[in-house]
């Protein structure tokens, strides 16, 4: 009868039990129209597909964002590495050129030392040897009238003593320029102070120092460069400007150490000076510049007629020295 009224029915059967014994004494049959259940199932399926679609789209967008972010990061890092490679290549080229110039400068320095030894102590020692040979042989020929052999011997001894004293003085002057103090145990400020004191002791001049806040530690090559730059710049200032108003300024910022050696001398025109020398700077200036450039730094000369001269050197320090 039910099937005559409905096309589809959901039949449910349940047992009927006796209360006292629990024995099954019959069965119940229920009929239900499945359209409501099917509607709920279909609605649940649609809701599930919508949730799955939204989740999948969200995950896809998230992955796209992550991949794009990683791609942009890799691109930026690649560009940064390219710039670093270019900077390193440029720096390596500068160091190579500085090393080549340093070799040439060293050869010229050796030639200058040889000329200084030949024209200075060697001449005095040669004169002293001739006089000693004359004394040893007792040669007193061609004495002027009225001059005794004792007077000539006394004169020869005085000449030998003077020649040997001059040779010793000139040898000490040459060796003082070549001597480098023990810098391994000195801090950077102590290295600057030693260069100042050595120059003051040698020349009798007075130098003002503005130390600033600089690192205490530095590598030995950096300390050697600092000492040599100060030594040469102060010597040039004393030689050409009479040591007038000599000042040393040392500062540190962003990993760079800056030295300034200034004086109140007459100054000069750097362009005119280079033109007069055939566009080749002096040996001392070249040596300073090459020492600094081999460590990745720069050196500049600032001067004008009547305005004094300033030597500015910048050296790169390792960040861990702070």
Automatic annotation (TrEMBL):
Reactions mediated catalytically: ATP + protein L-histidine = ADP + protein N-phospho-L-histidine
GO CC entries: membrane
Ranges where the Histidine kinase domain occurs: 226-319
CDD domains assigned to the protein according to its UniProt record, in alphabetical order: HATPase_UhpB-NarQ-NarX-like
Entry-linked PROSITE patterns: HIS_KIN (PS50109)
Keywords linked to the UniProt accession: ATP-binding, Kinase, Membrane, Nucleotide-binding, Phosphoprotein, Transferase, Transmembrane, Transmembrane helix
EC numbers on record: 2.7.13.3
Name of the protein in its database record: histidine kinase
